[in-house]
Amino acid sequence: MQxxxxxxxxxxxxxxxxxxxxxxxxxxxxxxxxxxxxxNKDGELVLLTxxxxxxxxxxxxxxxxxxxxxxxxxxxxxxxxxxNLNCSNCQNWEISQSAKEKLSTKxxxxxxxxxxxxxxxxxxxxxxxxxxxYTYTEPTVYLEYALDTMKLARAIGLKNCWxxxxxxxxxxRELILPYLDTINVDLKFFDDESYHQHCGARLEPILENLxxxxxxxxxxxxxxxxxxxxxxxxxxxxxxxxxxxxxxxKETPWHISQFEPEISFxxxxxxxxxxxxxxxxxxxxxxxxxxxxxxxxxxxxASEDTYCPKxxxxxxxxxxxxxxxxxxxGVCDKCGEKLDIVxx
Length: 344
Fold this sequence. Notes:
Oligomer: single chain
Number of helices: 10
Order of helices and strands: EEEEEEEEEHHHEHEHEHEHHEHEHEEEE
Structural class: alpha/beta
Largest sheet: 8 strands, mixed
Number of strands: 19
Helix content: 25-40%
Strand content: 15-25%
CATH class of the largest domain: Alpha Beta
CATH architecture of the largest domain: Alpha-Beta Barrel
Strand order of the largest sheet: 8-9-11-12-13-14-15-16
């Protein structure tokens, strides 16, 4: 299903400039932008995947990952085809990248499940999910679909959660801010060269969006996939940690995930991230003053649990995505310290 885009500029000769993400693609009639799902139809920009969910399911909120937002709850997750980046490490590449090279416009418009915004909110409420997560692929590229759903969700008391690469335009950011409750942003690298080489993006727009979300009061969590030889140095961890602590706040959770080559888009020849590297990243984050640093994709590590930043008592016990013990009040039951948890 097609829907006219909310953010674009008409140019001469039926060209359009998309204003949805920080690429600002200029698109010829009959062509699509870098995301693969926003196209120029006779001088108008349209979203090709509106109401066409390539994925919809119920997940633990911890899977996103959100560790400090409604912990222990379920979230109704949706996604469409497409992504505005082309990360060589992508783990959902079959749905994020296929629209760019393999699929025709007709195929893009018909693949997946027909699921309109009002049906998404009904499914979330019927399944007792207090939130909807826009995830798996980049929600920026299906802005119109996501935003229409977010407005309906907000009206009936459901929370809206984005899992994003953070490369949206300021215009998109301002559109979603009134309806966005939390966002987890993948901070993949901390230099422009790596972002350009491995993702086809730039760092600064992402940092700008992170600062803006934090300033606006959106609950923010950061995820970094540590890739051997590419994003696993102590220097990079240190720069990221100090940025998070100083620009976003020491209460901002930071998740460092293990790279798995077998599910990677292009980096099959690299090894799995050693546990020692994840532990180094966690230690670096704590030294920078961050209160909550977590390792991901390695069940059983103590750094998956939430500890009181003051007395170090374990407050949330996690085993994989399952929460075994959860703090109910958002404060440490040993010393009374605030745990920076959004409970509702």
